[in-house]
Amino acid sequence: MAKRFFGDSTVLLGRSLRHIARSPDTIITTSLMPIAMMLLFVYVFGGAIRSGEEKYVNYMLPGILLITIASGISYTAFRLFLDMQSGIFERLQSLPIARSSVLWAHVLTSLVANVISLVVVVLVALLMGFRSGAGVGAWLGVTGLLLLFTLTLTWIAVIPGLSAKTGDGASAFSFPLIFLPFISSAFVPTDTMPGPVRAFAEHQPVTSIVDTVRSLLTEQPVGNDVWTALAWCVGILVVAYVLAVNTYRRKIS
């Protein structure tokens, strides 16, 4: 059974990746907005924002990476919506394949596409002056946390992708996720914010993830932030996965 699942998921993953290869504008569009934001914040607002002794591009890059992921998963929802509307799901279900492999193919495609987008954004950040003395272990930690965050948001994206009535509705859910880093420690220290805003910023998932990534890249102790970040990601992932699978079963039953 497991062998069949992995085999079917691999075949369907190849199908989805071929679609992306034929439409590279998806990756370009996903990367373009975060890069534009990075240019704007570094070269227009950066001189007026307090970020300590480090370069502002180093300070704000973790938040830009999360925005890149939030932007990318909207395409996951949109691709799912298109497959639902075109009847591909029904045709695939009539074949002798593992039913869950259809969803996992989209999820894995999201991981691959977002990794490519993240690499593009980091390369642009390097051109803008980003530097990190972090070792291999720290970079692996950053990569693992970003992949977990991507997986979490992707399973959230599955829900509107399966249940939305329009393509715009399927992808619009990502807008609040894209703007959530702005009310966090991603661009300015939270102690500069008014009381209620600061309380929200310091107790929402993005802040702990941003602080963990920033500490790893700047070779600082991560403290409890890493455990808070992991708890947020895993908790949301479990809930999103259960809701997504239940939505999928209702749609194909």
Automatic annotation (TrEMBL):
Family statement drawn from the similarity comment of this UniProt entry: Belongs to the ABC-2 integral membrane protein family.
Protein location: Cell membrane; Membrane
Protein name, per record: Transport permease protein
Main location: membrane
Keywords for the protein's UniProt record, in alphabetical order: Antibiotic resistance, Cell membrane, Membrane, Transmembrane, Transmembrane helix, Transport
InterPro entries in UniProt: ABC2_TM, ABC2_TM_bact-type, ABC_2_transport, Nod_factor_ABC_transporter
PANTHER family listed in its UniProt record: NODULATION PROTEIN J (PTHR43229)
Membrane-traversing stretches: 27-49, 61-82, 103-130, 136-158, 170-188, 226-248
Membrane topology: Multi-pass membrane protein
Domain (ABC transmembrane type-2): residue spans on this chain: 25-251
